[in-house]
Structures are given as structure tokens and as C-alpha cells.
What we know:
Order of helices and strands: EEEEEEE
Number of strands: 7
Number of domains: 1
Amino acid sequence: MIRKIGDNEYSIEGEQRDKLKNDYVTIKGTFLAKGRELKFNGKIVSQVSYVNNGKPCESTGLVIFKASGKRKYWRLQQMLNCDGSSTDYIDIFF
């Protein structure tokens, strides 16, 4: 759910879950959208059964999402998982 709260400023809260594997990603916070860049401040938690020993990876604070080329989504630019070696692809579609 995305809700406008100011000039180019929005609140966001949502999740995506795989019920078979119990994998998920959740997001909650605010963002500023300027063109193809989004500045998000809040909390993102992801859990993938085969990454980080199946434990949740939590990121809090300011991060950047960018949309490149003709993509219809912003992609998280800080892509390193908590395990220190895996890449997380976390996207927000528009």
C-alpha cells in the first residue's frame, strides 16, 4: 500500500510471501520519488530459505532504489544480503 503524504513523499507498507517455502520480503517506511530515483527510509526484512541460513535479513534506515532503462520498477541499490555474499533483488513496481 502506497499513500501520498507530501510533495513527492509517500508512505509505503507491504509484503510478498511464498507460502510453500515461507520466504518473504516486507517493507515499511516513507520514500521521496524524484524521477527514476527513490529515497526510502524505513525497514526492509527479507527471508529466503537458502540464503543467510534461512534467517531474516533486516535493513533499516536510508537506502536508494533506482529504475534504469525502460524498467517499470525501482530496484534496491544496496543489494548485499546480511550473509555478506548473496545478492538481494528487491523491487518496487510502478
